[in-house]
Amino acid sequence: MNAFGKRSSVAVVLLGMACAGRADARMIPGSDCQESSKACTCADAPYMELFLKNQQVALDAWKTTRNDIAVNGGASTFEDARASFAQNFHGDARVLTPLAICKDLDTAKIAGPDFLGDGAEVDDCFCTNVCRDIVDGVIAHERTHVAVNIVGIDYMIGVGIGCKVGSFPQQFCDTSNALLLSESEVLAHTVGNNLLSSRLNDLQASDPENPEMECTWEPLPAAQQAAPPPQAPQGFFQRVQMLAQRFLHGAQR
Ligand SMILES: [Zn+2]
């Protein structure tokens, strides 16, 4: 296959990831979602904390998934990686409580990357039933996927050539798609979680409804055990992370 053919086929595979979030007719652009959401107040803090903790558990599950694929192989497609994640992730069902009002919500399709629009699309009922800092974190997550996929396309071309000429180990070549999705999820969760965490800190320092007051709330009881700590990233991850960071910083004003 020539370089152009390789580029087209890889692009199609990567763009296929967006389709999962596109099937629902009630998906709206990220910027519309931000506009329709309400600002977070002290009263939202316990749920924000719960949502963040759940996303941190998801991040750990993606790191476990990624490291397991890198060490043990056994996953070659995006679907394989998602199936592995589903086994590693034990979510907190309490995150769905405020969304019970959303009768048609598909909890597997709350948000997705939007490659041709503003980078993210989000379920409109989610947008109006969680506060804006959570929405912003979800949108940052999806936009990170777009950034990773853009650098990932070039990276996968490089992997394709390296695998073709036999310069990479076979297990790495067999697992590169699953690794790319896992790494994309690790980065997206990291970016989204960091944003929500810093907003929660800001909220704690000052209650928007009483700016002179600190915002305090009862810590939530633990719902589950956290995943084991992740291992150090290997060269593959460092390279994709470096490219993604460069893209993200370049994309910012
Ligand atoms: Zn994601």
What does this structure look like?
The protein has one domain (3-251). The chain has eight helices and three strands. Helices cover 60% and strands 5% of the residues. The protein has helices at 3-15, 30-36, 45-72, 78-88, 124-129, 132-164, 170-205, 235-251; strands at residues 27-29, 111-114, 119-123. α3 runs antiparallel to α7 and α6 (132-164) packs across α8 (235-251). The chain has 253 residues and is mainly alpha-helical. β2 (111-114) and β3 (119-123) form a beta hairpin. The protein has a three-stranded antiparallel sheet with strand order 1-3-2. Mean pLDDT is 80; it is low at 1-25 and 229-233. Residues 141, 145, 185, 188 line the site of zinc ion.
